[in-house]
Structures are given as structure tokens and as C-alpha cells.
Amino acid sequence: MAVPLIKKLRALLVLGRISNLPTVWSNCLAVWLLQGSPVGDDFFRIITAASACYIGGMYLNDACDVDFDRQYRPERPIPAGHITLRSVWIWAGLWLLLGLLLILPSGIKATGLGLGLVAAVVVYDAFHKGFRLAPWLMASCRLLLCLVAAAAAQPVISPAVWVHGLVLLAYVAGLSFLARGESGGVKSRRWPLLLLIVPLVVCLIQSAGRSALAWVAVALQVGWTVWALRPLRQQQAGGIGRTVGALLAGIVLVDWAALPAPLNETSLAFVGLFLLARFWQRTVPAT
């Protein structure tokens, strides 16, 4: 039976988890600004490359998890019959290749880091089921994304970018450990919650020279994290999924809070990306 075009298009969006793309864009924007580079054509090429790598990784994730999804998540596009497994493998390869090709003009360092990013994505997708440390591997993809963007912006990666990349590593690992309890009967543990406070701890350590607007960003990020954890505290049905989706959108706020003195227009950009992520999550699942 032929699949209607609208279902095919939605399957492509769901496979790519496009509701999380604003977090990829905010990663690149924060790093670009921390590097002190002006936003121009190179920046938009890099966020396009990052988007392609992210979408390719998400397609590959579903292709590798097809047996798991048939058992635990039959609503996913492949087991639901909205798209063939072969098509998803092809799309995944094309997206990842496009991402690498777009990174190439940024030089040897950025290209090498881009290859490392794609390698980390492939290894994660291939082996994350049953691998206890898989959330750290997933989080390393965000760190590598930051380093790719930084190398594309300036030849030397600033210490501020390394710090922010490690903050994202901790935050994303924390929400990823929580996400493991969303499906498949894996019990979610609470110790990863400690990783979610790393952004606040680092902001407090680096408090010198922070503007008032920067502290507003920090307050909003902390407040959002506390609000996102509410379904877990109240033990609501499906609470893990809602918490993880909210924490994923919160990556944008972590990026914003990393800037010691954001401009008004810069802050508006991060607020817009956060709202866009939450809006898209209404129609396309974040996980």
C-alpha cells in the first residue's frame, strides 16, 4: 500500500527530530560569539553543516534501532511503515556526507574535527543500546560540534569554548542518562541530575565581569531546569519524556548563559531559538 506524501514528509521530519535543530544552531552561535567572530557567510555555512550532521545522525539512529523500535516504539516511522529502512540508510549517509562537505572550506583543523564528529555519531548510533556509557558518547558529539564551529570561526580555539563545550558535555550526558528510562523498561536513575547543575556551577565560578543580562540568562536557565524536572518529582505518567524534551530545549538557555555579556539582539536570538524549539516540539517529538 502506497504511503501518502504528507506521511512521507512527516516521517522525514520525525526521523530528523527537527525540533532539536534550534539547539544545534544555538551551540554554533554561542561558540561563534565566544570566539569573538562576526556572524557572516561562514557562520551560516557551519550551522547548515551542523544541521546536516545532526539530521544524518538522527536518521542513522533510527536505522540502527529498528529492531528495538519494532518492539518498544512501533509508532516510529520505520516500524509504522511510513518509510523503508533502505531509504533511511541512504538519507543518513547523504546528510552526513553533506555536513562534511560543508565543513571542508573551513580548513584542515575544522575538517579533522568534523570527521571526529561524524565518527562519534556513527559509533554512538551503532553501539549505544546496552552500552552503559553511551550518554557520554552522545554528549561528546555536542562537544565536538562546538570545537568544529570554533575551528571554523578562528584558527585557535579559545579557553572559553573549551569550558562551554565541557559544560554542554555534562548537561547533555545528564539528560541522556535520564532519557534512557523513557522506553524499553530501562530504570531511570536520579544521580544524573547532578550533571544538570554544572552550567550554574561554572557560571558562579566565572562570575567576574558578568553583565546583568548575563545573570538574567543564568536565572532563566536554572528556573527552566527546575520546571522541566517537575514531572519527575510528581512521578507523572510519561514524565521522563516530557522532562527530556524540556531539557533538550534548555540547551539553548545553557548556550545563552555561557556568554558573559550578551548584547540585547543576541539575547533575543537565543530567546527566539528557545521558543522555536518548544513550538516545534508540539508537532515533532524531540526524542
List descriptors.
single chain; 287 residues; mainly alpha; Tetracycline Repressor, domain 2
Report on the structure:
The two termini are 28 Å apart. The chain has 287 residues and is mainly α. It is 70% helix and 0% strand.
What is the compact description of this entry?
With 287 residues, the chain is an all-alpha fold. 70% of the residues lie in helices and 0% in strands.
- Looking at this structure, what is the CATH superfamily? UbiA prenyltransferase
Domain count: the total is 1
Q: Give the termini separation.
A: 28 Å
**What share of residues is helical?**
over 70%
Low-confidence stretches: none
CATH class: Mainly Alpha
Major sheet characteristics: none
SS-based class: mainly alpha
Second rung of CATH, namely the architecture: Orthogonal Bundle
SSE blueprint and pairings:
Blueprint: H1 5-16, H2 21-34, H3 41-64, H4 66-72, H5 85-103, H6 108-127, H7 134-153, H8 159-179, H9 198-205, H10 212-228, H11 230-233, H12 239-249, H13 251-257, H14 264-281
Helix pairs in contact: 2-3, 2-7, 2-13, 2-14, 3-5, 3-6, 3-7, 5-6, 6-7, 7-8, 8-12, 10-13, 13-14
